[in-house]
Request: fold
Amino acid sequence: MKRSNSSSISKILTILTISSVILGLFILFKNVTPQSKKITQDLKGFNLLVPEILSVTEDFWVNAGQKFKIDELLCPELILPDPQVGNRYLSCNPIFWECFWSKGIKKNPMLSFESEGQAFHLKSVKLDNGKFGKIITRSSLKTGSAPDWVFQVKIEVEEFPGQTLSLGLLNTCRDRFLPERVYAYGVSKTSRAEDVFLWDNFGRSIFVDRFPVSNREINDWAENNSKYMHLKVNEIKKWPYPAAHLSYKEQVQYCAEAGARLMEPLIFDAASLLPSSDIYQPEVVTASATPWERDRGRTFLSNETSPTVEDCKKAAVKGCKIYPYNTNSVSWMGMSDSLGFYPESFRSVYDRFNIKFSSIFIPADSSWSLLGKRGIWSGEGNKPQDFSTGSIDENPFLSFEDVPVSFRCYREGGQ
Reply:
């Protein structure tokens, strides 16, 4: 395309153009083809740096959880040190972006890179709302193919005063692709492989939330939709923890407004159960008892003894603390906390069993501490009477006053 004149390019830099997506970023300018040459300190030189600016910004946004530690941060109004919370909480997180640029890591925050032998330094610029970023919701974007939200930021290069680049950062850390293959569903009632229900997702592009939806994510949702303000969690320490106070209808609504659906049991099992082999279309598929070991008898879940700290990181059962954004519990395809942790609800399509009982309320050696086994939740409350087993089995939550229920979403195709 022809290169625009200085005034028109400068104007384009401030306009949100939703159609252009590059490397997990919504880019808010017209593309300018760079050429290898000395970087001059003018608009032409600034445009030559755009690919580097995108790369450095995306790396910082997506890999924050690998580059920084929560206990290093000095922004208690946004993030509190918590040894139970994994550093992955920082990745693709608007709160961490605000913390970093508000001097939560160092007194003079900036990102550095070199191009053509010259050093350059990036900084985030405050927007009209007085912050370093602004969440633009799916409804505000007014396009069905948009993500659930875009985090709008403005970047400047210290060596180019007056020139800024507006970007929209995407939550590309949120989910993982579920490979196309044949999967088992539920718990086999016998030891025979043919007793397992099978299904496949060939021809379907399914993306599964890596972690249960957090209180911070619910706060973002509520702040952009006043009718859900009653769901907002004000205690900062609780923000990284699972949102476990929503009704079933509110969980469904959250996922829908994020361009997704509430998790379904068979998709959850596919993401949790160890595949029988590396073959995508095997003749025999068997269900595994845990996300990391096929035989439950070879795990701590078969013991009556109290679980160790390391056991709890794999599956937070009774006697454990929970570890939000913990990647030690990750399944074969990248989903965390599929066994233990909090009870987790589902949009059940084939029967009324819509919740995973396995949790910090259930002992390790309980028959409920098993992948594929589910109970029934009314979806309206968190009292013991809101849960049932659907059989003669005793309700495992009878001795508890309240039982929190977490949830996660999945996306399919172009959602």
Observations:
- The chain has a mean pLDDT of 86.
- The first strand starts at residue 21 and ends at 22.
- Residues 50-62 form the longest helix (13 residues).
